[in-house]
Amino acid sequence: MAGSIAIRRPDTKDIDMQDKLPLAIVSDIACPWCFIGKARLETALDRQGLTERFAITWLPYELNPEMPEEGMDRTQYLEGKFGPGKRREIEVRLSEAALESGVTFNWAKVTKSVNTRMAHMLVAAASTVQRGGEMTAALFKAYWQDGRDIGDVETLVQIAVEQGFDEQAARDELANGELRETVIGLEDHARKVGVTGVPFFIVDGKLAVSGAQPPEVWAQVFQQVLAAQQPEQVPQF
């Protein structure tokens, strides 16, 4: 996987990555619950003072791997998947869940269901320089709040530039066959190990958490994970 996309290094003030606990997030940019799940996790980390304790890695998953590269009308897609007239009901339920998480959706602008393969490639490339989280956040906002077509090469290049990446390097990464195969391989691996829906979280390589869980659930997860990190107390005689 090429790493030429970035033009700046991670901040040296960051805690050494080897001192952090790994937290892998399997998600899809086109998944609204993944957007909500990201916000809920971040709220929980902030409340517990653990934002710098975990090293977060974003892994790809395509809810619709057969989606045409040009995407399709969102109403048509949702009605085909859930039935006629379901779009409004789905959006109301998501908006209610999002509101309590501090997330907003701009449904009027989300007119297309997109193919997210190249968006995942962009995240993977940014991840080589510890900026996968920033790129993921930018893509979530671009799609769900700004209504941008994140399945379009030119749109993705523009988003990369807005995030401080070199334009030509971004184009090269989005045309990188090796990077594409890496993303496909990661998606295949997720399915092989039993991931059937997203968001899906793997904490410290041991504990699996499925779905957009509220901060209260995450507090329990963190307690369990951190307790396991404590050395056993040897009785004193």
What can you see in these coordinates?
- There is one protein chain.
- This protein is an alpha+beta fold.
- Helix content is 47%, strand content 11%.
- The chain has 9 helices and 6 strands.
- A 4-stranded mixed beta sheet has the order 2-1-5-6.
- Helix 4 (117-127) packs antiparallel against helix 5 (132-145) and helix 6 (153-162) crosses helix 7 (167-174).
What is the strand and helix layout of this fold?
Elements: E1 21-27, H1 32-47, E2 54-60, E3 72-73, H2 74-82, H3 87-99, E4 112-113, H4 117-127, H5 132-145, H6 153-162, H7 167-174, H8 177-192, E5 200-203, E6 207-210, H9 215-229
Parallel strand pairs: 1-2
Antiparallel strand pairs: 1-5, 3-4, 5-6
Defining key terms:
single chain; 237 residues; alpha+beta
Residue fraction in strands: 5-15%
Helix content: 40-55%
Residue stretches low in confidence (pLDDT < 50, at least 5 long) are 1-15
Q: Any idea what the shape is?
A: globular
Mean pLDDT: 91
Reading the helices and strands in chain order gives EHEEHHEHHHHHEEH
Strand order of the largest sheet: 2-1-5-6
Task: Count every beta strand, where a strand is a DSSP E run of 2 or more residues.
Answer: 6
**Span between termini:** 55 Å
In angstroms, what is the radius of gyration? 19 Å
The description of the largest β-sheet is: 4 strands, mixed
How many individual helices?
A: 9
Structural class: alpha+beta
